[in-house]
Amino acid sequence: MKPFYQFLILFLALLVNQGCNTLYNTKAIDIEIVVPGKVKIPGNYKTVAIKYNNSNISPNPFFQRSSFVDSTINHKTNLDSIASKVYFSQFIEEMKKQDFFDSITLLEEQDYSLIQVLDSNRYNFEEKDGKILIQEDNRSKINVSLFSRLINQFPNTNKSYESEKYLDPHFGLYNASELQNIADSTDADLLLSLDYFASLDGIFYNKEIHLASEVAMVQACWNFYDLKKMEFINIYEKRDTILWDQFAENVRDVKEALPPRHDAVLNAADIVGESFAHMLIPHWEQVQRMYYSSGHIELKKTDQLIEEGKWLEAAEIWKANVNNPNKAIAAKSKYNMGLACEMQGNPEAALEWIVESFYVFGQKNQLHFDNCMDYIHILGQRKQDVKVLEKQFRDIE
Questions:
Q1: Torsion sign across C-alpha atoms 293, 294, 299, 303
Q2: Which of 14, 57, 234, 327 has its Cβ near the most Cβ atoms within 10 Å?
Q3: pLDDT tens by residue, 63-95
Q4: Residue 395: what pLDDT?
Q5: Distances (CA, A) of 158 to 56, 96, 108, 321
Q6: Gap between the Cα atoms of 51 and 194, Å rounded
Q7: What is the H or E stretch that residue 284 is in?
């Protein structure tokens, strides 16, 4: 029996040692980080007015149809208009939640359901290599012309209009007097106007792989106005698609596998409305990070500390082990110090720790090499993001 006990003791010793040395023990944690907006909004805009001004609110036959496998279905419900309200509502909610501007004023909606928008002042702008040549004296005219091109892509054949509205050659759906009234009544620096919204939905089926797909397309056009200078400064047209994929044995099962058109379009509008707010301003995003767990007596305590959000206490334990003679423990501790530094808003220090962790094994341990390289790439992007965020927040102070 003695050889058996010797073998058992040796096996347990190896197991404990493996718990201390292995670099396979990793855990994932969800954290929230601030991400900069992708659209550059000048820092002198501290207050904003926002208006639902959708000129495509009237039922448009082109957008009241959808595709279903090999057929086209015409619908009576003006789902477009409902989706535009969902989109706008979600956009406003997200803008307020991020609390970037000093104030947000929500203006009264304009109802275009019985108004036909026309343009008698088409502007022929110069193009070179597919790019529009913009100068300060023609910017507003180009913006209006681009908007006119958009709304005339799919003209509404609805004959029930009661009045007409011509685009202003400098301000589009507004005129100078209307913009001045908005500026005077809100004291806002910037006007964001949702001037066009449209959506389409289609369901498709690939019988070879039994895949049912639904695509919802959302198109929105926002026009930006500087209310201090009374200028039409930018037109931002964005198209987004949301996709659903599901297995379907045959065409008869497709409808059951995918969401109804109504749900798909409204869900897409909700998602895209929030997404556009995130494009404009800095916002919080949930991301996942990896850290090393360990069977080491001291390091094991950090799992609970991380769950409780006590990063500084966990960092004290990791820092005490960064020079541990056990290389695996040292590498883990240095790597985790990098995560602790990122959690404290210091990606530069985090990057230094990850580089140190990398050099413990270099390329001798492929898994650790990959983990370090992945995190170095993430932290490099975070450093760039932090620079942009510092500028965005510095500009509004």
A1: positive
A2: 57
A3: 888 999 989 999 988 999 999 999 999 999 999
A4: 55
A5: 11, 36, 25, 73
A6: 6
A7: strand 283-292
